[in-house]
User: What shape does this take?
Amino acid sequence: MTKTARKSDVLELEHFLPYRLSHITAIVSAQLAERYAEPFDLSVPEWKVMAVLGRFPDLSANEVGEKTVMDKVTVSRAVTRLSEKSCVRRRLAKDDKRRSVLSLTSKGKAIHREIVPMVLHYERELMESLTVRERDTLSLLIEKLEKRTEMLAANYLLLPS
Amino acid sequence: MTKTARKSDVLELEHFLPYRLSHITAIVSAQLAERYAEPFDLSVPEWKVMAVLGRFPDLSANEVGEKTVMDKVTVSRAVTRLSEKSCVRRRLAKDDKRRSVLSLTSKGKAIHREIVPMVLHYERELMESLTVRERDTLSLLIEKLEKRTEMLAANYLLLPS
DNA sequence: GTATATTAGTTTCAATTGAAACTAATTGCA
DNA sequence: TGCAATTAGTTTCAATTGAAACTAATATAC
Assistant: This one.
């Protein structure tokens, strides 16, 4: 009998992984947003777009959507707004004029450079509750879960009944 | 130099805990909702309310909000809709007529009983990627992070500048 | 005891969301 | 080539959201 064992037909939310993930994530996202949203007048989708473009320049809107798990409408609007604020530049791909090539402007980069240390500081504060070894373990476990969801998605699509 | 080490001013999203949590949670939540939302005509907030009431009967709307990290407006509306569908009963607390006492009706319980095995099955599929020991570790790590966010919330409120 | 402050929950209203329809560009293939 | 199917991204519109205002009940202060 392990800590996580339970009767098969009782949903103990406090031990149910999707519930626990959603709980800790909602709190972490809110605490993080507290630190950048108002100060920099950025919505959560806007910051997500800037964050991925800071890390991976010249993505298409689609690719941004994949990396942030946001749908294309949300991405499109965040990019429009960021472009109005001159934080993101959208060009057209040479080889395919449907596709856009998104990148941070120098203004966007400057804001990105201001926010990054703040969010890293927050992450460091959060991680202080874990040993270095635990951090690596957590990273590994999340990776395993991610791989697993990819498999499940593939399976589920094959059996849509 | 550990796996998670990095330069202090570069945001490598693929190693950034809030990003990774948000990524895996979005996918898990979506895969879970796929399994109950349409089949049972339940929105995500509605299912969350039913799930906590199945586990903790006779909560107030406020308490439901705390347990699900949903704001009171969302809870209020989910409860209204569930009540219209005769899945949840709302009574008034004897000792404080502002407070409601929420519980699943027999119909609500029946639906709950149908969904629970499905979501537990999904969780089991997800967890198959981890050893029993890893499951316990993950549980412990999430708990530590939760505790930590509580501390940070308290601190941040004290220094609102 | 009455007035004020606080708390639980609902309603209103404006902003955000995402599904579906759309535009424009590209690919496939007869 | 040329026409149907697909793909990238945007727009439209109806549904969902949450902040702020509100109602009703309780707690606190004087």
